[in-house]
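During the reporting period the student researcher (J.K.) took over the structure-prediction task from the postdoctoral fellow and processed the backlog of single-chain submissions. One of the processed entries is reproduced below for the supervisory committee.
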Amino acid sequence: MLIYPAVLLLSTPTSAAPLDGATMYAKMALAMSAVRSPAAMSYDETVSPRGLSVRNIAANGVQVVHLVYSSDKTVLLFHVTQCAGADTARITDAAAPQPYTAEQPFWSAVWSRGAQSSVIGTVRERMIADLVSADDGAYQIALASPQSINGSAAYHLHLTALHDAAMHPLTDVFLDEQTFLPRRAVADFEDDAVTRVTGVVTLNFDRVGNYWMIDSGEVDATVHAYLRQVSGSAAFTASNVTFAPGLCAVP
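J.K. obtained the following structure tokens:
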């Protein structure tokens, strides 16, 4: 589930509309600093493949949920349970209901403490890191035309990395006009560890209960190899979210 560490809405910042993008970015970081993760959560994650699908593979002795290129367009459903501070998640594939424990997937609801094994997981972590931190000169920030995100008015910030674009991948952020929390975040990525892969990750945020979450998202990726390119995408949507400390109780 491309879900941000679900965060409790502790406050609703109010202010006159900022004059520039840098001010808005600072207000976003301030709003995000007032949030925290729930002790535990459970949710369903629907994956809609369009050239990219999901596979569970072993990497360095750990089960990892990866995106892979596939012509199979079968919609997938996963049941996920995650606990605050844990590096792994309990995952059940609805089509093969044998639960397994894996490194937190790229749709993780809880921000993991360690490095991600998947390229998309790493991009997601870097996006979140920049969303919760005040700009330290990593980006040139420009205010673009406002947009409507899921029916809500949003400020649009266009970001250009001034150094180390791999560590600072954000290109666009859309902020709720009332709270300055992110409604949508978009990032570019590139990886050439084995074969050159480029793409875009989109995370869509909304209120779920008393929390602010990434309730949906999309990944578009292209592999550049041997004078040809292979492209695909996959969309993710969360539903049936439950917050309950007892979910992580030790039997």
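The committee noted the following: The CA atoms of residues 47 and 114 lie 24 Å apart.
J.K. will present the remaining backlog at the next meeting.
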